[in-house]
């Protein structure tokens, strides 16, 4: 927790060289007593003092770099006689200390700047001595320099509060540690009717307009004054005065004159509701309308089942225009998200000895129907890789334009390029960047404010990978990005890898989110270990008025190394499935992630699971449509994929998912990627250019998927698939200058085709 403690006043009394049983903090020899004390004023914190040796005490402080501090020293000799203070050791280059002498009492002040950078530690040593006492007293100050706390942009700096108290006449004099020898003075009154003696008071400095930092008293534009039990007052008429003491020290006072504090208004008359609460495991609740008046009952889904742990709002309904006492209540309205509002007019009332209780019994709530919604989903591997630096630039605006099309939810993969992320964000929300990265704590949740909207972040990671997620919102549109690695490397918080390249965009509110990084990537070869591949999760609320109307959306990118086709094509595909074990472990983690993100959804609402799985789907019979087939290739026989079957079996442990493409097009291959050695027909989605963005040869493959779960029996809404298709890039042929990839001109913005699906969300 960052904070500033100004003007910390600490009295330090050193142990004597010849310690005798006269009490700590003083030394007496031959009837002569010597005492040594100090006051430390810094922007920071101190602890101690700590005895570090005979006659030596040490104060350990942390001070903010770039500020100023001072040490006030006092040595006293009893009976009065010559007494002296000197600096035994100061850091090299620091201001000199002239020392001080006096008769009976010697005082000295040492002003010093706290140097930058942070991370340094300095030791200052001061000694007091007097004739007639053997030995000296030593006071040490150990000063560790720390960085200045960061401040949010757009918020002007403030200085304070600095605390003090008034004297018996209501006057106060509060030192300002950040301005040496500067004090704020005034008289505290209850709006001039009476002074406020011996009252706590604090002041906060406000800089003048245009001043970014208060380094002199004339930089102060106003002073805010506060005291317990009174609203804060602001004084703008300031009286600056300076004076000099016998030692040549200049003191500055900022006079506030008579400060008027108005008494806080009396508390309002207790209002009868509304009250908010949460039911227990049996759906029961008890709430307090006003002190001494309670309401209890049980919320049920029309007696079919109790509503356990259900948040609700209860509002009393008056018999007339207002409720002045419990006798004026005619009934109660109860509002629960996802249910129709209920009115209770039959209840029991019990009152005894000034205590009144209402019991509503079982309250019957009918489910509020979720509106029918048509949902357009777009899924696309954009291939915006940093390694394509010479070719990413021309494709970024086209990718951003395509992603910001007429869709409700967009799931993108391989948006590794930072300029690409910003372009997509700006195209989707109208703002280049409006959000921030948030670290996730495994097994814990946190609520964050994003553009005025509260989003619940879930620490649903199934492994120990430190993860953070970007959350942004502007103009009612939401952006998730990541995941990114988060955590110490060799004890230092650094970003060791590229983020996962995933983006999830939504026109509907995202009310909860999470992210995870695979615990097992596919190795350094191919760059898999250089990025934090994983999954994003968004809980998307389709009806802003009904918190029960939401679905779960997951965006996924599995390991990309080595195609995983075996069987009849063994030996014909360049790389057999050598990375399946990695992908298998990732799918197992994905299943655990899905369960963790949706475990609080007892109604089992619909789930959409999409992304680039890098698992080849089986080839149906006659799979050669849209392709110019190489010699000797027979497309008439179907080709299985054991990895695809294994993937479905693993996913079934997390839910009953349906492959959307296979449901609507069981006899079409739906290839979303093919190598540069394959040609396509002009009427296909690739046009007659094939895939010029592919980095090498490779058989046609369906790697990109949309899986969905329609919803459980008790879900308040269900998901139905209307259509799914591949995005056609041939419609870009008439747009502008073609991209250039080597010697090839192309209009293909990615080496993957996108998938567009339309779902119909309907109530039960």
Structural topology:
Elements lengths: L25 E4 L2 E10 L2 E10 L2 E9 L3 E11 L3 E8 L10 E4 L1 E9 L7 E9 L7 E10 L12 E7 L5 E5 L6 E8 L10 E8 L12 E8 L2 E6 L3 E6 L5 E11 L14 E4 L5 E7 L2 E8 L10 E8 L10 E7 L6 E3 L3 E5 L2 E10 L8 E12 L4 H15 L5 E7 L2 H12 L5 E6 L4 E6 L2 E6 L8 E8 L2 E9 L2 E2 L2 E2 L8 E5 L3 E8 L16 E8 L8 E8 L22 H19 L8 E6 L14 E2 L13 H10 L6 E2 H5 L14 E2 L23 E6 L8 E9 L12 E3 L2 E3 L8 E8 L2
Parallel strand pairs: 4-10, 13-18, 21-26, 27-28, 31-37, 39-40
Antiparallel strand pairs: 1-2, 2-5, 3-4, 5-8, 6-7, 6-9, 9-10, 11-14, 12-13, 14-15, 15-16, 17-18, 19-22, 20-21, 22-23, 23-24, 25-26, 27-48, 28-36, 29-32, 30-31, 32-33, 33-36, 34-35, 37-38, 38-39, 40-44, 41-43, 42-44, 45-48, 46-47
Helix pairs in contact: 1-2, 3-4
Please provide a written account of the structure:
The strands form eleven sheets. The protein has an eight-stranded mixed sheet with strand order 29-32-33-36-28-27-48-45. It is extended. 8% of the residues lie in helices and 42% in strands. The two termini are 49 Å apart. Helix 1 (389-403) packs parallel to helix 2 and helix 3 (580-598) packs parallel to helix 4 (642-651). Residues 1-24, 151-156 and 563-576 have low confidence and may be disordered. It is mostly beta strands and 764 residues long.
